[in-house]
Amino acid sequence: MKRVSILGSTGSIGRSTLEVIRKYPDRFEVVALSTGRNIELLLEQIKEFRPRAVAVSDHEKAEILRTHISDVRVLSGLDGLLSVASLEEADFVVSAISGSAGLLPTLQAIRTGKTVGLANKETLVMAGEIVKRELKLYNSRLIPIDSEHSAIFQCLEGRDPSTVRRLILTASGGPFRELSAEQMNNIDVTDALNHPTWNMGRKITIDSATLMNKGLEVIEAHFLFDFSPDAIEVIIHPQSIVHSLVEFIDGSILAQLSVPDMKGPIAYALSYPERLENILQECSLAEIGTLIFERPDIHRFPCLGYAYEALRLGGTAPTVLNAANEMAVDAFLKGIIPFVKIPVIIEEILHAHTPQSINTLEDVLEADRWARRKFNEIVEVR
Ligand code: MG
User: Fold this and answer.
1) Alpha-carbon distance values, 192 to 7, 69, 333 (Å)
2) What's the 300 CA to ligand 1 centre distance in angstroms?
3) Domains of the chain
4) How many whole angstroms separate alpha carbon 130 and alpha carbon 132?
5) What is the number of alpha carbons within 13 Å of residue 231 lying toward its C-beta?
6) Distance 220 CA to ligand 1 centre (A)
7) Taking a C-beta distance cutoff of 8 angstroms, is the pair 332, 338 a contact?
8) Is the entire prediction scored with pTM above 0.90?
9) Residue 361 three-state SS
10) What does the DSSP 8-state code read for residue 369?
11) CA 61–ligand 1 middle distance (angstroms)
């Protein structure tokens, strides 16, 4: 029986994780859950899965939840989240909080030697060096839940890394793949939240529309699998059937295919190295007929280029890229800046930054704060 804690259980990945666990009650036990503010859904999850502890980031919401239950420990704030991430009873922690808020709890899970199913790519983008160091130090392990990285993980399984030439990440291209640069001036929030193949949270859906999500995934792949930026390629594949590929030195390519459903990578991470039966709907290749691939257009989607640039710069550059992007996406969702300004502001902040080497977590947090201050300066001036 694997004992599982889910950080971010009311979000898209958290709910899909519980769907998998619901099918296999003899294999998994939920020991802890967490949410930011959604205590209504958390209460339903508590009633069904009977965890030992839950964390609610919002203190007031935590207080309200306490009036509804008495037999489950309700923790609150960042401290509560860190307690849930390191709960002694858990073997496996699903890190599914969106954005930079996932960094500290994920590190906490690593520091207590848990196996971490990683859906929060920002942790590796912000602090990849620190994560790699601490995984070794605390004898912890990361298993990717991001669909592309799960695909690569599955294709690499048991193979000698020196036989690999390239990792090839697929990208759906988002809802604006076919828009001209001019048409992109008129994108509103509703258009941007309407993803063609994946049903996800708001932040990652906007990141998919700018292709920053793919850029962050290139950085994530670098830290997960130890390949240089030159050995990580991105290809547009609008159908989201091929989830990523690995090219070997002899020119042979292996790919992982399935219908686009996050339950696939979640179940694989939870059960690894085994596979669970009947997780995904059948992927009928005959019905799909043709698989389409094309090169990404870096001129219309410059965020992808900035992510490569930040990775090559190294040190705090990816941390700054991530913070700038998070601020820009939030400002777009609030109607403060237009869609096309997202890459413009990210570029300005990235180029104003002098990358520093990352030795401690404080170096990461300082770079993150610097980028957020810079964003506020730029957007206030405008
Ligand atoms: Mg992904």
Assistant:
1) 26, 39, 9
2) 20
3) 2-144 (3.40.50.720)
4) 5
5) 17
6) 10
7) yes
8) yes
9) helix
10) H
11) 31
Report the separation in Å between the CA atom of 72 and the middle of ligand 1, taken as the mean of its atom positions: 34
Integer Cα distance of 4 and 117 in angstroms: 10
345 C-beta neighbours (distance < 10 Å), count: 21
Q: In degrees to the nearest 10, what's the CA dihedral of 127, 132, 134, 135?
A: 130
The confidence score (pLDDT) of residue 382 equals: 60
What's the CA gap between 239 and 220, in Å, rounded? 22
Alpha-carbon torsion (72, 76, 78, 80), positive or negative? negative
Ligand 1 midpoint to CA 151 (Å): 10
Q: Determine the distance from the C-alpha atom of residue 66 to the mean position of all C-alpha atoms in its chain, rounded to a whole number.
A: 30
Give the number of residues written for the chain.
382
In tens digits, the chain (382 residues) has pLDDT values of 999 999 999 999 999 999 999 999 999 999 999 999 999 999 999 999 999 999 999 999 999 999 999 999 999 999 999 999 999 999 999 999 999 999 999 999 999 999 999 999 999 999 999 999 999 999 999 999 999 999 999 999 989 999 999 999 999 999 999 999 899 999 999 999 988 888 888 999 999 999 999 999 999 999 999 999 999 999 999 999 999 999 999 999 999 999 999 999 999 999 999 999 999 999 999 999 999 999 999 999 999 999 999 999 999 999 999 999 999 999 999 999 999 999 999 999 999 999 999 999 999 999 999 999 999 999 986 6
CA 265 to the chain's CA centroid: 12
Q: How far is the CA of 120 from the centre of ligand 1 (A)?
A: 10
Residue 93, both tokens: 């922690």
Tokens 């292996």 found at = 254
